[in-house]
Specification:
By secondary structure, the chain is of the alpha+beta class. Helices cover 24% and strands 23% of the residues. It is globular and about 60 Å long. The protein binds flavin-adenine dinucleotide. Flavin-adenine dinucleotide (FAD) binds at residues 44-45, 75-82, 86-87, 96, 115, 137-139, 142-143, 145-147, 149-150, 152-153, 197-198, 202-203, 319-320, 326, 410, 412.
Length: 457
Amino acid sequence: MRARIGARSMDKREFLKASGAVVAGSMLSHFVAGQEPTGPRENWAGNLTYSTDRLHMPGSVEEVRQVVKSCSKLRALGTRHSFNTIADSTQNQISLKRLDQIALDEKARTVTVGAGVTYGKLSPYIDDRGYALHNLASLPHISVAGAIATATHGSGVHNGNLATAIAGLEVVTADGELLALSREKDGERLLGAVVGLGGLGVVTSVTLELQPSFQVAQSVYEHLSLDHLEHHFDEIFSSGYSVSLFTDWQHHQATQVWIKRRLAPGDKNDWQPEFFGAKLATEKLHPIAGHEAEPCTEQRGTPGPWYERLPHFRMNFTPSSGRELQTEYFVPRDRGYEAILAVEKLRDQITPHLFITELRTIAADNLWMSMAYQRPSLAIHFTWKPEWPEVSKILPLIEKQLEPFDARPHWGKLFTVPPARLQAQYARLSDFKALLKHHDPEGKFRNEFLNKNLYSS
Ligand SMILES: Cc1cc2nc3c(=O)[nH]c(=O)nc-3n(C[C@H](O)[C@H](O)[C@H](O)COP(=O)(O)OP(=O)(O)OC[C@H]3O[C@@H](n4cnc5c(N)ncnc54)[C@H](O)[C@@H]3O)c2cc1C
């Protein structure tokens, strides 16, 4: 069976018939402890039907080891928020949802979480105990293990992606053994393993660095002319702890600027009525025009805990649009304005199929397969309408425009960059492949996505 990008939902029987494949019911009973044959077979956005019905759901590390030993091919699945086939498998998937323990180490100022834990579950837990993470993505619904595997990020010129907070990992490798990696003990190897693209093995737990809890206030400004980015790019993106510009690419403007400021006790929380000519919004806004703002985190400068302001969307609501597609490219921050102008040339092709674009910055890091590897970055993100036939034709045009900027696509979103060009963007790719080969010599954790993007030319 093959995953189909852009497929609409169909029932299982219809899908098996359409794909010409049959999984005999009797086969399902052969699987090891905790297998759940009727798991979610679509990704979150519903644009992808996974290529196997075999989903293992172990309840302990020991059961994970058994599953790994019993499968010749296996891919770990997080909360299914990736838009492409990175988590797909034609044979077996494993969900760590049931490994949901959280252990705080106040002395080390770290927290160790089971691979099933989401940021939405972790954040209030540590905040209640006086701690915070340095940053969050636009939504809290994703698993920590799945997010770091694709170098998921938030925004902020001084904020590395979420994987930069990782101080240690435990992974069940191809032979079923548990490998523990830590920053102190393994240095370089951990830098290679964290953004692992699901290729190193099944991560069972993750240790994250903490910092003292903090407050954030968020406000939105409307209608910022993109002209201001030419001479004030760094100033605009440094105007808060985390800053996002939203644009529909029309009228050379950011329709909204979301500024999230970190507040220390006693800090003033004043917001000027204008920001480079953009006007302070007096009502709460959704980044996509015409969408109700209720799912969004609080704005209008009201201070709140970091985890209720750093994401754009609240935990118990549908983030973003729901049925949608996403794409994102990382370019060097110091060429950010140039790259924006290059994409803007395609505005009349892009806008009809777009919900919204978001522009964010990410600090450089040393994680081998991170999109921000040794490069302070601007990420140009597209939330598309669920119109894959049209979107798939626009992506190569955008990628052509961004070729001079050595754009790196987000590992968890949709892209059509030719493998050779993609591979050329990762200076540590051969080291990463050597790491995978060492821990997975037979390619148990390789799927079509990795074969195509990392191993074919
Ligand atoms: C509405 C929405 C908003 C988003 N916003 C952002 C954003 O602000 N910033 C951003 O950077 N991205 C964003 N994303 C993308 C998302 O963060 C990434 O795709 C992320 O990887 C999804 O995590 P997941 O838990 O759903 O993992 P999945 O999508 O299920 O899997 C992703 C990868 O992680 C691997 N994986 C998962 N669990 C394990 C494990 N236990 N062991 C080993 N490998 C594992 C999988 O094999 C796969 O390779 C958004 C996505 C959506 C749908």
